[in-house]
Amino acid sequence: MRTSSAPIQHEAQVAGLAWSLWAELGVAGWTRNHSDFSIDPEALVILTAWLWDRDPRLRDEATDWCIRYGRFVSAARLKNLLGSASWLDSPWWAEFAATINANSRWQWPAGEARPRSFKPSQKSRIEDFTRPSLIALRVRALAGVGARAEILGLLASEQRDVAVAEVAARIGYSKRNAAEALDSLEMAGLLSSSRIRNRLEYSIVDRARLSTLIDPKPRWTPSWVPIVTVITRLVEFLRRAEDLSDAVASVESVSFVRNLDDEFRWWSISPPQLVMVDDAYSVLVHWAADLFAGLEVGEPATVVGRQA
Fold first, then answer.
1. Which residues of the chain have pLDDT under 70?
2. Helix 41-51 crosses helix 56-69 at what angle (to 10 degrees)?
3. What pLDDT, on the 0 to 100 scale, is given for residue 4?
4. What domains does the chain contain, in order, with CATH numbers?
């Protein structure tokens, strides 16, 4: 058994990341390290709920924002993302969502959970929707909250054709919803499709036309869903590893990284190379320290991986 301050430090760094992202969205905060990164509202909401009471002020100010601007958050996408990560029934999510629902007209998936006692501060305010980091909200204001807005945001940052299955996986909606939205956007003349063997691939017809509607675009477009999955699982693993022997922790580290292979690939970041099982845990700990530090300060090579 070992004790370490690393999990506590990493939780503080995750909170610092969340504070910076929320400050971009108009939450009353001071530090903004991610002004040139697009922000994924649902991923940020889930990350903040996961932090739970580790930073009560962050939780409360984020709740205040969600109550005021919840019309720009997709309840359906939240449900899909939470379900895919097996978080839908977690107590931290249920309480957060129930509190939002109790203080607004939104209907986020919360089950039978009871809301916490909460009084909105009403400090949250989006002063300028033209910030590059707010591109997701801008597209939703234009195309509505749903699969079409997510597709437009995705394709605006892609320089290649994408297929339906990939679009669905990356936007957090079902394949059926993605296919219907792609078809609608093609009928509207914004997208074109071509059949490659047995699948349809889509691309933007006129990039300049779309840019006039949604610019300014941020320089960086991270894949926030796998980022949130990896960093929350990583903190949880490092906490659990404190009760393991060095040998067992190293073996478990190898399995942990292998089980997140899809998330690392989607994020476009290289996972730690745990070749020697004997020191795998130590390698993972040092890799995690660099990872959380880079995320908190908005280091592009960390946040967007190989895209940088």
1. 1-4, 307-308
2. 150
3. 67
4. 1-128+223-308 (no CATH), 132-214 (1.10.10.10)
